[in-house]
Amino acid sequence: MTNQLAMSRKKIPIYSGVIKYFPDALQEVAKVSYAGSKQHHPDQPMHWDRNKSTDDLDALMRHLIDSGSKDDDQILHDAKVAWRALSNLQKLIENNPKLKSNVK
C-alpha cells in the first residue's frame, strides 16, 4: 500500500467516525434490515431483496411523519428513516460510479 493510499484511507474512518459515533442508532437500523428480510423471506438467510424496496424516498418520508414513535412491528420509525436514507445513498453511489470514493 502506498503512503498516499494509506493517508487517503485514514480520511474515511468507518469505525471511529461512524460505528463509534452511532452504535445505538446502527443497532436499530440493523433491526430494520433483519425484520425486512424475515418479513419477505422468512425461510431464507438475511439478505436485501432490492425488488421489495424501490420507493426509498417516499417510504423515508412516510416514516419521518411518525418520527419519535414505533411502527406496528415495534421498530422505531426513525430507524426506518435511517435505513431508507442508507438504501437511497447506496443505490445512488452504485448507479453513479463517479460519486464513489476511490479509496479501498
What can you see in these coordinates?
The longest helix is centred in the last third of the chain and has 19 residues, at 77-95. The radius of gyration is 16 Å and the shape is globular. The termini are close together. Helix 3 (23-40) crosses helix 5 and helix 4 packs antiparallel against helix 5 (77-95). The chain has one domain. The protein is mainly alpha-helical and 104 residues long. It is built from five helices and no strands. It has helices spanning 3-10, 14-19, 23-40, 56-65, 77-95.
- Computed over alpha carbons, the radius of gyration is 16 Å
Indicate how many domains the architecture comprises.
1
Number of strands: 0
**Helix-strand category:** mainly alpha
Number of helices: 5
- Average pLDDT metric: 93
Separation, N- and C-terminal Cα atoms? 10 Å
Share of residues in strands: under 5%
- What summary fits the major beta sheet? none
**Low-confidence spans: pLDDT under 50, at least 5 residues?**
none
